[in-house]
Specification:
mainly alpha, globular, 20 helices
């Protein structure tokens, strides 16, 4: 079977793709996810920069501090279930409704705990500062919508990402337009927090609608105690790993806010956002490749290893290109996009850009550990990254300011990606990741 879009490809590429139905499905899925993120990258960059310019360094820093603070508790709403649910939907489709229903209730309960925990702690750590309290509770309430991400998992298990793109891109574009309206109306800071909340809600409604359009019914979902135990048993290492990831991904902004000020948070956030917009690539490619890796391992171990190395090579090459370009052009990029008020973000971007390399490779190797059900390895290495990041932030932020946080993030991301070299049984994966840093291999694969 050949997909309809194949006929538009150049003849040389068309000959390699024709007749390879699974490969076409993966490419199509990656294309949809990439289209989603490219739209977000383009529109989000324009609107995000406009919002930053409108709010200024202080208010932009306050908004990002609140979002980062809530993000620290987001693993409670995820519970490490994402990849586990996808794996089970692919491997045990007959249990699909039970898996979806159980995951939904677990994530909803986790979301409630996450929101309440974030709100209680901001009251304790920022007493009498009502603006922070308001922003945090609005952001935390949006976490509840993550319970409906299980529909996203179902579409991913079917390698049908375009429906997720419809829902989330529609919500994103709608609320991006709303943010522009808020700027034109000179709306207060809190209004932008409500816009982020509304985007999550609209996307969740869109997912439900499209899921029903596929002939699926939410009323068929069935939760089960034994199924919940099974999911949590497999997912707890990924949950603890998610806690570590959330902390070392956002603790820098929170620590800058407490140790310095909101203006420093604003400068730092402006820089790292330009790098993190590229992080859709490992997520999109990984989500699309995971089902194929699972099937490849079931067929033949050597075949699986070759596919995995190809995956690593492509991710390594892409990350090196992104890091080099962003680092070299960091100063003019900041000047053009944000203006003089954010000029201090240039050196931060030059350093933080290189974190893309270990992030891409770490995300790629995580797919291997999911396939092999070695989720504890993910826990070990993300915990190592967390400890590294927090310790370095304590030392470097007082000395270098926000630039110190960028250095700490780069080092900790590298620790996460390559610490598997020190874990018994995973040394080969570390050597495969190092081999992926050869850009010529990526060019050969793409050809």
């Amino acid at each position: 079977m050949t997909s309809s879009w194949v006929r538009f490809l150049p003849p040389a590429i068309k000959r390699r793709v024709e007749g390879r139905a699974q490969f076409q499905k993966i490419l199509g899925n990656i294309s949809w996810l990439s289209f989603d993120r490219l739209v977000r990258m383009g529109v989000g960059l324009i609107v995000g920069v406009w919002v930053a310019r409108y709010l200024g360094r202080d208010q932009f820093g306050t908004l990002n501090f609140a979002a980062a603070f809530v993000f620290l508790f987001s693993p409670l709403a995820v519970l490490g279930l994402d990849s586990i649910v996808i794996r089970d939907l692919v491997g045990r489709p007959e249990k699909g409704y039970e898996t979806l229903g159980t995951a939904f209730w677990l994530k909803l309960l986790g979301g409630l705990v996450s929101a309440l925990t974030a709100f209680m702690l901001i009251l304790v750590t920022r007493p009498g500062e009502s603006l922070y309290h308001t922003l945090v509770i609005i952001s935390a309430a949006g976490v509840l919508f993550q319970s409906l991400d299980v529909i996203d998992f179902w579409f991913q298990s079917q390698v049908r990402a375009k429906y997720v793109v419809y829902a989330r891109n529609g919500a994103f574009l709608l609320m991006s337009a709303m943010r522009v309206v808020l700027i034109l109306l000179q709306a207060p800071l809190v209004a932008f927090a409500w816009a982020a909340f509304a985007e999550l809600g609209v996307a969740a409604v869109g997912l439900v609608f499209l899921y029903r359009q596929q002939g699926q019914r939410l009323v068929e979902w069935r939760g089960g105690i034994e199924r919940a135990k099974s999911l949590l048993r497999d997912g707890w290492p990924l949950f603890l790993s998610g806690v570590s990831i959330a902390i070392y991904m956002r603790i820098d902004q929170v620590m800058i806010g407490y140790m310095l000020n909101d203006s420093a948070v604003g400068i730092y956030s402006a820089a790292i956002r330009l790098v993190e917009i590229w992080y859709f690539l490992p997520m999109a490619i990984g989500a699309s490749v995971l089902p194929a890796l699972i099937r490849a391992r079931e067929e033949d171990e050597l075949f699986y290893t070759r596919k995995l190395q190809t995956f690593y090579d492509v991710m390594g090459g892409l990350s090196l290109v992104i890091a080099a370009v962003m680092s070299i052009l960091s100063t003019p990029i900041i000047a053009i996009l944000y203006g003089q008020k954010f000029e201090g973000a240039g050196p931060i971007l030059a350093v933080y850009a290189w974190a893309a390399v270990p992030v891409f490779l770490g995300a790629a190797s995580s797919q291997h550990f999911i396939v092999q059900n070695l989720t504890r390895v993910t826990l070990y290495r993300t915990f190592a990254g967390l400890v590294t990041n927090v310790c370095l932030n304590f030392v470097l932020i007082p000395i270098l300011g926000p630039l110190g946080a960028a250095v700490a993030s780069l080092v900790s991301q590298t620790v996460v990606a390559f610490s598997i070299a020190m874990i018994p049984g995973t040394e080969r994966q570390a050597s495969m990741l190092l081999a992926a840093l050869n850009p010529f291999k990526t060019i050969r694969h793409l050809r």
